[in-house]
Amino acid sequence: MNDEIRGEVPQRLVVAATEVIAAGRHASMPLRAVAERAGTTTGAIQHHFRNKEGLLIAVLARHGERAVERLRMLRTSVPPPPPAVARAILLEFLPLDAERREEALVALAFEGLATENTELARAYREQHAVLAALLAEHLPTTVRSDIDIVLAAIGGIRTDLLLGRITDVRATDLVDHLLDRFA
Length: 183
What we know:
Elements (H helix, E strand, L loop, with lengths): L2 H20 L8 H8 L3 H8 L2 H22 L8 H10 L6 H17 L3 H19 L4 H4 L2 H16 L5 H15 L1
């Protein structure tokens, strides 16, 4: 088996896991459903990711990479002011389009499972620390001590969007209000 094919199976499994969670079939992501969707076996999941937690961590990492890539695409020859970068970072985590909606559903499922799994909770804390550090680079010093409040608010806005309690426009307004309040 060549390297290209070996690399293809883990990618298919990550995509399949994402689709299973985003489709709402089951937040706990049954491995059999993931393997079936990826056209492989549960043994392939164990081979490539060790277990369900390893696969979930790979799914979360994939979404983080996609968000970082979208943020990189925002770069121009003239760097935007730090508050605009902070705003862009925060908006990346809101389900304002189909791709981000899928990512938000995965994130919520991951968070729910992480409350009962120490390995997933550790991965969540690591991702949170990376995001907090990224935001700290683009927020005024006075706001840095409130990054946990900002991130908690974004989590609530994300959930409210997914539940249909607020609109995309209202969510964007809330992000702007939040940043204005802390600026």
